Amino acid sequence: xxxxxxxxxxxxxxxxxxxxxxxxxxxxxxxxxxxxxxxxxxxxxxxxxxxxxxxxxxxxxxxxxxxxxxxxxxxxxxxxxxxxxxxxxxxxxxxxxxxxxxxxxxxxxxxxxxxxxxxxxxxxxxxxxxxxxxxxxxxxxxxxxxxxxxxxxxxxxxxxxxxxxxxxxxxxxxxxxxxxxxxxxxxxxxxxxxxxxxxxxxxxxxxxxxxxxxxxxxxxxxxxxxxxxxxxxxxxxxxxxxxxxxxxxxxxxxxxxxxxxxxxxxxxxxxxxxxxxxxxxxxxxxxxxxxxxxxxxxxxxxxxxxxxxxxxxxxxxxxxxxxxxxxxxxxxxxxxxxxxxxxxxxxxxxxxxxxxxxxxxxxxxxxxxxxxxxxxxxxxxxxxxxxxxxxxxxxxxxxxxxxxxxxxxxxxxxxxxxxxxxxxxxxxx
Length: 429
Hints:
Layout: H1 16-19, H2 49-55, H3 68-71, E1 80-86, E2 107-112, E3 127-128, E4 134-135, E5 152-153, E6 163-164, E7 170-171, H4 175-178, E8 182-187, H5 206-213, E9 218-224, H6 226-229, H7 248-260, E10 265-269, H8 277-282, H9 285-288, E11 294-298, H10 310-330, E12 335-339, E13 348-349, H11 360-373, E14 379-382, H12 385-391, H13 409-423
Parallel strand pairs: 9-10, 9-11, 11-12, 12-14
Antiparallel strand pairs: 1-8, 2-8, 3-4, 5-7, 6-13
């Protein structure tokens, strides 16, 4: 991909909280003597929309199917965002609200159907508003617009029966929602947010990075819940629709192999849907059998949903420590990348009427604590949660997930981009 449309500089992106661990006993926000460190500048140099557009080849202006290079362009690096998903829908009044994307649209490249086979016409099917949202003219659009009652119903949809906090109705989840998403490719001219950018973890994960750089065989074992299995990516067997984007563990393996230029990257997925960190602890033998060099540990979604108590955090901490120590007993050089979960739909309630989003953010603090305790020795954190939380400020959960707690392609790509950034220095896509 051309680098013309990638952001030019991210200066001094020093965020230990999000991107790594401080040395043991050292406060990253202090200088010797205890004074606060001045915050370094964090700047993103952005080109104009026309400059970016004029730098693109014809191929780079379109994306009619799954493309590893385009899909793994980091959201924080590239000014071109390919195939971002959004759900056009009618509200309870029958109106079609304009929809915001992750960034204001500075220039649209194309808008495609759910299967990517139909390209919609600007002016007839959609309009880009002055503030960079996308709207769908009711009189002329041929874009499938989801009916209100196809998203919110009076009876439970499926076995889950989750209800909406805002609408007071049951919410439709799963494949039925993912099939309502359309895809927008566009140019952004607003910054990503330097404090959210994943930072290379070469010091903490030096063993894995050395193997990759030396083109040695490396076993990367992904261990977590249904999100880690790849639910609800379009390439997951339970979804199985175009564009058939691979699950994020496969994206990571494929991209690392491409970046490092060899075939010895073995990405193994040992995750199981519905599991908590306690299940992970009780079944750690499945990780041990894979002879891991790096374990990507990604629980938390199913651990959350309860009360915000210290007991829940303490149990999560103990389960993680036990898993790590068990692996180190057999493989003392194994390294761990602790990946925080995305957040569940903040508008969803469970069968007992409790918000599904309750204590999930507590677990980000837990994995950061673990990383600090090991002082970055064979342990690093990949904070996907904070980026997802930022996306939720502009996007609905159903725009990038199954409307409950699983990421669809756009958010699953975030997992892959962030993990690769932790393992490849100066990652640009």
